[in-house]
Design a protein that fits this description.
Order of helices and strands of chain B: HHHHHHHHHHHHHHHH
Low-confidence stretches of chain B: 1-13
Number of strands of chain B: 0
Structural class of chain A: mainly alpha
Largest sheet of chain B: none
Largest interface: A-B, 88 and 90 residues
Number of helices of chain A: 11
Number of domains of chain B: 2
CATH architecture of the largest domain in chain B: Orthogonal Bundle
CATH superfamily of chain A: MetI-like
Oligomer: heterodimer
Order of helices and strands of chain A: HHHHHHHHHHH
Distance between the termini of chain B: 72 Å
Number of helices of chain B: 16
Shape of chain A: globular
Number of domains of chain A: 1
CATH class of chain A: Mainly Alpha
CATH topology of the largest domain in chain B: MetI-like fold
Shape of chain B: extended
Largest sheet of chain A: none
Strand content of chain A: under 5%
Strand content of chain B: under 5%
Low-confidence stretches of chain A: none
Mean pLDDT of chain B: 84
CATH class of the largest domain in chain B: Mainly Alpha
Radius of gyration of chain A: 23 Å
Distance between the termini of chain A: 38 Å
CATH superfamily of the largest domain in chain B: MetI-like
Structural class of chain B: mainly alpha
Helix content of chain A: over 70%
Number of strands of chain A: 0
Helix content of chain B: over 70%
Mean pLDDT of chain A: 87
Chain lengths: ~260, ~325
């Protein structure tokens, strides 16, 4: 009975693995098709589409644009999110619950509504659609994730360490920089990578706040609206490889960092 | 120099040997810094204000601000306001929603669709989470979970495109079906609610899987064994032990998936057809034009947000009651 159950469940697991992997595999494969038309069967193969990606100036500049946006918005999110976390964790004050609720609000608002609200607010603030607006929207949207991750880490910091530092004469800023901050580094790095990926993959905010220059997901979307082609497969595969590689690296990195500090 | 010495002994306690003078030591005796510290640390109250001012300002202006401005724009008759024209408070933008079928139909379609997909995702991922938490050794658990995480690092657009290739008329599914001789002509999967559903479940499954997994993982195996010893069958064990104790995970997974799936824009545009228009497409329509329809778009977005929040709030409350009722 249990044995049968186990086999059935493991079949479901592997079927699920297929469900999440096969579409992406097919997409990568289709980029090697030597024809303009997407579809099976693939009769002859070519590397041209993949080589073409790196020769295409538009794709390369879009890729750079997306990476710059991801890095800058992540820097803002990390600073703000950490600051909020330090304020909220382990402190009781009037309105703390309200501040916490507002902190996670951007993560709860469904994508399209968040994009629309940012679009309207950007006009109020006088931010023109374009790079600045996208960076701002991504930064605000990612703050909750940083705050939550850093708060979780901060709650495990022994209070006695800070007290010891203060007793030995460190002022609050030095105590933060020498005790709290180094302790938070794994969480901050993990959160940064998460933000980088969120920003790099984001479509809806980039679409509604972007100017004429597209980010990578917006470029793929625009190309898809005018028809599928193996060229898009190649571009999408580059985005896929980049994000998956960063994701896997981050996963390993954070696990190792956690092992180092909580043996 | 004498001035420095007094500061040093005060802040560092013991003056270090010359070779031990680190960056931190130099910082603690640097006059502008000590002046700053004196200003900051005079009272705990001032210290708190300095720490709290920026985060509070940020969440009010950046997190709450956009939502409030959206609400405000939804209540005025024209935006942006032309110079010299007075703006008027109005509820017309909300009234428009109820007036026309092309507006409220996508709205209810979205809610039903998101609800159904949430349920499907739950049914689909529960056995996967259960298998990972119960039948896999601790060491393999992380590896097998990581295997599932990899595709989820990839963005929304790329994964939507992958589904387009899978389900197209010359796609992989139709090819396989044809090989087995099950069909002569390709089945038009694309641009239907089916393709949209497959795509959205593909995008949201992880947000269900992770809360379920962590709830199941916390549940001690001995509970099930105890129930079995007392004569409970597999189904009873699942219904009376596993399910009630994982309600918290189910509740947060469903809330996340519901909220996320109501907010998709690109996926319905790419995978859906004219008969599956969802509300996010309706809202977006008001923002493609020059801007005179922004108040209506803002009103519609507000309706959507309030409804989604109310529904998930009620759902969470129900789950909470259910949980408390069961543990009594």
């Amino acid at each position: 009975m249990t044995r049968g159950n186990r086999i059935l469940l493991s079949c479901i697991y592997w079927a699920f693995v297929l469900y999440v992997f096969v579409p992406l595999m097919l997409m990568i494969l289709m980029g090697f098709k030597d024809s303009k038309f997407i579809g099976f069967p693939i009769k002859s193969w070519t590397l041209d589409w993949y080589l073409g990606v790196f020769a295409d100036a538009e794709v390369v500049s879009t890729l750079t644009y997306s990476v710059v946006i991801a890095v800058l918005s992540t820097l803002i999110s990390v600073v703000v999110g950490t600051w909020i976390a330090v304020l909220l964790e382990g402190r009781k004050f009037l309105g703390r619950a309200a501040i916490f609720g507002l902190t996670i609000l951007p993560a709860l608002v469904p994508g399209i509504i968040s994009a629309i609200a940012f679009r309207i607010y950007a006009r109020l603030l006088g931010i023109e659609p374009g790079m600045g607006a996208i960076i701002w929207a991504h930064a605000v949207h990612n703050v909750p994730f940083v705050a939550l991750v850093v708060m979780a880490r901060l709650s495990t910091l022994p209070k006695s360490q800070i007290e010891a530092a203060r007793d030995l004469g460190a002022d609050p800023i030095i105590a933060f920089l020498r005790i709290t901050f180094p302790y938070l580094i794994p969480a901050i790095l993990g959160a940064s990578i998460f933000c980088l990926l969120l920003s790099f993959d984001d479509f809806v905010r980039s679409f509604f706040l972007g100017g004429y220059e597209p980010t990578l997901p917006v470029l793929i979307f625009a190309k898809l609206r005018s028809g599928m082609s193996p060229e898009i497969n190649a571009i999408a595969t580059v985005a896929l490889v980049l994000t998956a590689a960063i994701g896997i690296w981050a996963e390993r990195f954070t696990r190792r960092a956690n092992k180092d500090t909580n043996p | 120099m004498s001035n420095d010495t007094t500061t040093r002994t005060k802040s560092a306690g013991v003056a270090p040997e010359k070779s031990d003078r680190t960056f931190w030591w130099w910082l603690s005796v640097w006059t502008p810094y000590t002046a700053l510290m004196k200003l900051v640390t005079t009272s705990p109250r001032r210290q708190f204000v300095i720490l709290a001012a920026f985060p509070i300002l940020w969440v009010l202006t950046q997190h709450l601000g956009p939502m409030l401005q959206m609400l405000r724009v939804s209540l005025i008759d024209a935006y942006p306001v032309a110079p010299g024209v007075e703006q008027h408070f109005t509820l017309d933008n909300y009234a428009r929603f109820f007036g026309e079928r092309i507006f409220w139909q996508p709205f209810f379609r979205t809610l039903i669709f998101a609800g159904t997909l949430t349920f499907c995702t739950l049914i689909l991922t529960f056995p996967v989470a259960y298998f990972l938490a119960r039948h896999v050794s601790r060491k393999n658990q992380l590896l097998m979970l990581l295997l599932l995480l990899i595709p989820f690092w990839v963005g929304e657009i790329v994964r939507t495109y992958a589904i387009m290739i899978l389900l197209g008329n010359t796609g992989a599914v139709n090819l396989v079906l044809k090989w087995f001789g099950l069909i002569d002509r390709p089945i038009p999967f694309m641009y239907t609610s089916f393709s949209m559903g497959i795509g959205i479940v593909y995008l949201t499954a992880l947000y269900m899987l992770l809360p379920l997994y962590s709830a199941l993982e916390k549940l001690p195996k001995s509970y099930g064994e105890a129930a079995a010893d007392l004569g409970a069958g597999a189904w009873t064990r699942f219904r009376r032990v596993t399910l009630p104790l994982t309600l918290e995970g189910i509740s947060s997974g469903c809330t996340l998936v519901f909220l996320i799936s109501t907010g998709f824009y690109a996926t319905p545009v790419l995978l859906g057809g004219p008969s599956t228009t969802v509300f996010s497409e309706t809202i977006a329509g008001f923002f493609h034009v020059a801007g005179d329809e922004w108040p209506t778009g803002a009103a519609f977005a507000t309706i959507m947000f309030v409804t989604a929040m109310l529904l998930t709030g009620i759902f969470q409350k129900l789950m909470y009651v259910l949980r408390k009722g069961d543990t009594k």
